[in-house]
Amino acid sequence: MSRNFYFIGIAFFGMINGIFNQLWLIFALLYVQPFVGPLLFGSLPLTLMFASLMVSTATVILGGIPAAVYERVTGAAESNDASLWIWLAGTALLTLPAVGNFVKIGL
Amino acid sequence: MDIATSFASYWYFHIPNFILAALMYTMLGRVLLSLMVDPDSPNYIWRFFCRITDPVIAAVAIVTPKVTAPVVRWLFGFVWLFWIRVGFHYTLLVLNLAPRAAGAAS
User: Fold this and answer.
1) Where exactly are the transmembrane stretches of this chain (chain B) (predicted)?
2) pTM here?
3) Least CB–CB distance from A79: residue in B63, B66, B80
4) Which residue range(s) make up the domain with A41?
């Protein structure tokens, strides 16, 4: 399978979690305002989008940790299909709490 | 509570938070600067940004799959630093050790 499909899947799961995970989105929103507010010119729409982006990226990052550990343990010089599958599965698992809202609301 | 009193009372929060914020914005600066300068540029601002952020990127690289491009790794570093700041403040808040006033976290 082309690596691009893994990346599209990982980004998709990250996006779903960033948009539909209410708990983490609100938590991020509370902190984006004081921590990054000046960078966003105090704009509420930008703040909401940035909070969503933080949750999405955090999903991708956290999902990648098991894959990175796997690469280190096996001593792989480069990422391979197994590590990319682990990354994809990790992001999918982290996205589970948001799936209900995604199915109900949709894109 | 004014700024001076807040700093004196909560220095153990403000100093690490300031260092993490400086690293976070320097990381973002490195990403933006990379659009304009070569990776091996002798530009002193670029070299300063690299020197400051390289330790963070080295730590981020340990928990990031190797397929990730360098610029993505830098952006991951930015996000890591943001969540570390959030986690740090939240931990102190739970322990009733952090400032609670609106905007005091900035």
Assistant:
1) 12-33, 45-63, 75-98
2) 0.90
3) B66
4) 3-96
Task: Give the closest-approach CA distance of B88 to chain A in angstroms.
Answer: 11
The arithmetic mean of pLDDT across residues A24-48, rounded, is 88
Is A92 part of a structural domain of the chain?
yes
Q: CB neighbours of B50 closer than 8 A, spacing ≥ 6?
A: B30
> What ipTM, to 2 d.p.?
0.90
**Residue A86 belongs to some domain of the structure:** yes
What CA–CA distance (Å, rounded) separates B45 from B33? 9
Which residue among A34, A38, A67 places its CB closest to the CB of B105? A34
Q: Which distant-in-sequence residues (6+ apart) come within 8 Å of A52 by Cβ?
A: A18, A19, A25, A28
**Cα–Cα distance for residue pair B44/B53, rounded to 1 Å:** 14
In a domain, A105, yes or no: no
Count of structural domains, chain A:
1
Closest to B56 (Cα-Cα) out of B69, B74, B72, B44: B74
% of residues, chain A, pLDDT over 70: 100
Mean pLDDT confidence for B47-58: 96
